[in-house]
Amino acid sequence: MKRIVIIGNGAAGNSAADTLRRNDPDVELIMAASENLPEYSACALPDCLSGHMDRKKLFIKSPAEYESMNIKTMFGIDIKQIDPSNRMLMHQDGKLEYDRLILATGSRSFIPPVPGSGLKGNFTLKTISDIDSIISHNPRSVLVVGSGNIGIEAAEAMHERGCDVTVIELMDRILPKIFDTEPAHRIAGIISEKGIHILTGEKVIEIKGEGKVQEAVTDRRKVECDAVIWAAGVKQNVEMAAAAGIRIGSLGGIEVNRFMQTNFEDIYACGDCIESTDILTGYPCLSLLWPNAKKQAYVAALNCLDCETEYEGSVSFVAEDIFGTTAVSMGLTSDALQGKNPDVIEGDNDGQYWRVHVLNGRIMGMQTLGVTAGLGALMAMMKTGILLDEFYKTLDDPVLLRKAGWYMPARMFLRV
Amino acid sequence: MKKQLIADPEKCTGCGLCELVCAVNKSGVCHPSLARLSIWRDETGGIFIPLICRQCDDAPCVEACLMNIISKEPATGVTLRREEGCIGCRACQVACPFEASRYDYLRDVVVNCDHCGGDPMCVKYCPTGALQYVPVCESLEARRNDAAGRCVVTG
Fold first, then answer.
1. Is residue B26 in some structural domain?
2. B98 and A374 in contact by Cβ < 8 A?
3. Interface probe, candidates A362, A393, A402, chain B, greatest B C-beta count within 10 A
4. Residue range A318-354, pLDDT digits in tens
5. Using CA atoms, how far apart are residues A152 and A148, in angstroms rounded to an integer?
6. Set of chain B residues whose Cβ sits within 8 Å of the Cβ of A321
7. Is B22 helix (H, G, I), strand (E, B) or coil?
8. Integer Cα distance of B59 and B91 in angstroms
9. Sheet holding A197-200, edge to edge
């Protein structure tokens, strides 16, 4: 009988476990992870931090569910080493053999080496223990370093808790990786209207304080604060894999083929720790997003059971709630399309804003504010590479439009 | 037998009865925005397109859900949600190409069509027969026509 071991208990690890169990009721399944908690949703952590959501609601699986699915759990265990030639894992209490291994080790928050970043009152926002320690620290004024999705969500959550919040971003606008200048400014407008201070084009040089955080020094000013939340990026957990001889790609993630297989035949990898191919550019990318991690895990699990399945590639897709306004970004920004000069379809209507990037007649990216309808259709058009000419032709022909009715919700964005 | 809810836009008059029946049945409030299906109208062109949950096999909403509360019922193929776990983040709503993940503002959760447990109300009340509840093999026939329509476009 085959034994499959999964390292990691996040979105990817659990999605792999669910897929394996659904498709093979008998295979022996072991999940090992260093965090001694059942599966929870990391994406919902800011909702819990803000106090809108009960901590209990974060958990997706209960320990009993693992048991009923016949998954053996080894949580709170430190896997020290992978021995691919003997198909063996070394951990603190002994050895564990496997027939197939799925690596879903994820990523961890990265704190830049700034003086004072070790002081009491420096936090990250990635795990449940992070939010527990922020809440027990009970800060009054917070500096959030970095304005990616985690940074903005952290700022919003701390503001809801009643703190005085400042966000500092190195680039010239907030959310620089997923939004262009215009939508980013609109989002910054909503956020600063609520009383959150935004500093762009600034860098934290030092964190000062006696025994705990009291002040942050940037290259332009001093910011008084009693807590710092670092949201300046994440790092892939690949050290153990690299030590075992598993190939690491140029971006720092584990290299896998389209079957999610590493350079060892029996070792698969999925989730934040890998590099995947971007569906739109065809280049390797680090996805770090929940839906992609789940899809990769699904593919890895099926291939583990010898059902050949291919991964179509990753696509960026982020939906944020900015104080009640839904902000969505999918595909590529102008920066990511640099040098290609995409056509931009931009529109604005009654508090709604949309921006579509078109390259060679195909949709390459989309950013919206306050819009919820029609985005799924655009996403599908983007992923399948439907030509806009074809889209317009269909819209103008009632017979064809009735056959491809799902084009209807997308038309408001694409009429030039 | 697996059954599928299908719509024929040629027959739809955009009367909106299905939306109202669905909203009343599912939420107790007579408002089309609470329905689990939606009619997309082009009044000047006389085009009315009902968009309903297609109960996709490889569903984007299942993938998008941050709380893993959406799953496929293996026997019927229906997409079901554990609504008490929903945090109302609306990721599934944005991901659905058919506008079939509907936001229920009364309860702050997102919902989708569940075929009313095997007896869809919208089909019962549709005056023109534009909505039908048929075995999957018949719905495939309709989908083939759909695909044929697209081939005409791509040439």
1. yes
2. no
3. A402
4. 999 999 999 999 999 999 988 888 999 999 988 899 9
5. 6
6. 89-90
7. helix
8. 13
9. A122-124, A227-230, A141-145, A164-169, A197-200
In a domain? residue B108: no
What integer is the mean pLDDT of B148-152?
60
**Cβ within 8 Å, pair A328-B94:** yes
Answer yes or no: are the C-beta atoms of A392 and A356 closer than 8 Å: no
Number of structural domains found in chain B:
2
Q: Are B94 and B103 in contact (CB under 8 A)?
A: no
B48 and B8 part of one domain: yes
Contact yes or no for A377 and B152 at CB 8 A: no
Which CATH number covers residue B36? 3.30.70.20
Q: Are residues B7 and B78 in the same domain?
A: no
**Does B42 share its domain with B82?**
no
B104 within a domain of the structure (yes/no)? no
Domain range for residue B3? 1-52+113-155
Average pLDDT over residues A386-415: 90
Q: What percent of chain A has pLDDT over 90?
A: 89
Mean local confidence (pLDDT), A94-118 = 94
A-B Cβ pairs (cutoff 8 Å, strict): 113
The whole-angstrom distance between B151's CA and the closest CA on chain A is: 10
The lowest-confidence range among A88-102, B28-42, B108-122, B136-150 is: B136-150
Is B71 a domain residue?
A: yes
